[in-house]
Amino acid sequence: MASDPDRSRPGVKQLLENAGNGSCADCGAADPEWASYTLGVFVCHSCSGLHRNIAHISKVKSLLLDPWSCSELEIPECLQRNTTFSHLEFMDSVGNAAAKARYEQLVPAFYCRPSPSDCMLLRDQWIRAKYERKEFMYVERQEPYSAGYREGFLWKRGRDNGQYLSRKFILSEREGVLKYFNKNDAREPKATMKISSLNATFQPGKMGTAHGLQITYLKDNSTRNIFVYHEDGKEMVDWFNAIRAARFHFLQVAFPGAPESELLPKLTRNYIKEGYMEKTGPKQTEGFRKRWFTMDDRRLLYFKDPLDAYARGEVFIGSQENRYSVLAGLPPNTQGSHWPFGITIATPDRKFVFACETEEDQRGWMSAFQMVVSRPMLPQDFAVEAYFKHKP
Ligand SMILES: [Zn+2]
To answer: Where do the structural domains in the chain lie, given as residue ranges?
Structure first.
């Protein structure tokens, strides 16, 4: 290499040390290794793949594998037109902090900003909303989810046959409900779900569809599930954020003066853990049955099928201060489990015994249960506990 015109200039990797560039501009994952040289942002590998979906406005390159400066790439075009060098210069002039100030200036408080563990759909639509539709630069573009009312059709899974049928849904912040209708001209909704107990969580894996959304609500204090999707990813994510907006409004009314930071984590929640275990009945002599378990906040629900509308049962798990504990292993003389790795949950009233297929499953469930029992109970948790205690 005869001359090195770049020697005095910083390399692209040095720009990662600038404030804001140390984590992905879109999902917050640490140590981004890719960059969009048309938007000027540093992103993780996974989000760089989503930027390829909007290639007309975002062009990505690897920080490690692709050439960024002329000194690394001595091609005539580059030397003449200085093109690759200008990418570097552009990255230096923008960066994640400046891009955030521009593209995220009007993100509504309730809007879901995805984390690295969120599903592809949420991250894809977040990236499109920011850079392609520029929803957070113009507030009028947020109408689909911030209006307080939303009406439309979703594919809903039938409770008995598992077939998805088109159903009309209406979300009304004013009425405090989400409802759906079996017939388009029906007067009475098939179900009315109160926003106060509504939760929505994307479940692409469990439902086997990339846009699959699980909606739960409480009826007579028991959890009910419905499973919906829309072919159009934007529609589905708009529904999700409309539900979050309605929940935010509800919580602001229910807890006046509560800081936003306290309300926002309550808009929607992902499950702590899901998967199969075996369980036995209260006497531990009934034989073990394989069930699908969902740890949702402090409710451990079990289902025959992961997509059942109703749980077969629910167990409340309180905190260690209130005499709940988790132990690895089965009580002595337990018989009939097919799976070898036991877990015993003791509540003030009884013991629940579960068996996992692998040691890894057991470890995963143990740490999920430990996390729940080590968390102090909140005032509203005591009300739920009391309900479970007096349940017929
Ligand atoms: Zn990312």
So the answer is: 12-103, 144-259, 273-389
SS3 244: helix
Query: 80-89, 142-151, 372-381: which has the minimum mean pLDDT?
Result: 80-89
Has residue 8 got a pLDDT over 60? no
273-389: CATH topology is PH-domain like (2.30.29)
User: What's the pLDDT band for 59 if we cut at 50, 70, 90?
Assistant: very high
Q: How far is the CA of 91 from the centre of ligand 1 (A)?
A: 17
Rounded Cα gap, residues 348 and 371, in angstroms: 18
Name the pLDDT band for 70 (thresholds 50, 70, 90): low
The pLDDT of residue 362 is above 60: yes
Q: Which residues of 223-235 are buried (b: 16+ CB within 10 A; e: fewer)?
A: bbbbbbbbeebbb
Each residue of 163-206: pLDDT tens digit?
Answer: 999 999 999 999 999 999 997 778 899 999 999 999 999 999 99
Say whether 273-389 and 144-259 share the same fold. yes
Name, in order, each residue with C-beta under 8 angstroms of 221's C-beta and a sequence gap of 6 or more. 384, 387, 391
CA distance 99 to 92: 12
C-alpha of residue 173 to centroid of ligand 1, in Å: 32
How far does residue 37's CA lie from ligand 1's centre (Å)? 16
User: DSSP alpha helices (H): ranges in 195-341?
Assistant: 204-207, 233-254, 260-263
Could you please state the CATH topology (level 3) that the domain comprising 144-259 is classified under: PH-domain like (2.30.29)
Half-sphere exposure of 76 (CA within 13 A, CB side): 0
Residue 139 Cα to ligand 1 middle (Å): 25
Task: For residue 138, count CB atoms less than 10 angstroms from its CB and return exposed for 0-12, middle for 13-18, buried for 19 or more.
Answer: exposed
What is the DSSP annotation of 144-195?
Answer: HHHSSEEEEEEEEE-TTT--EEEEEEEEETTTTEEEEESSTT-SS-SEEEEG
In this structure, what token pair is assigned to residue 292?
Answer: 């699908």
Q: Spelled out in words, what is the top-level CATH class assigned to the domain 12-103?
A: mainly alpha
Q: From the CA of 210, how far away is ligand 1's center (Å)?
A: 18
pLDDT over 70 at 64, yes or no: yes
The predicted-structure confidence for 194-233, as pLDDT tens digits, reads as follows 999 999 999 999 999 999 999 999 998 889 999 999 999 9
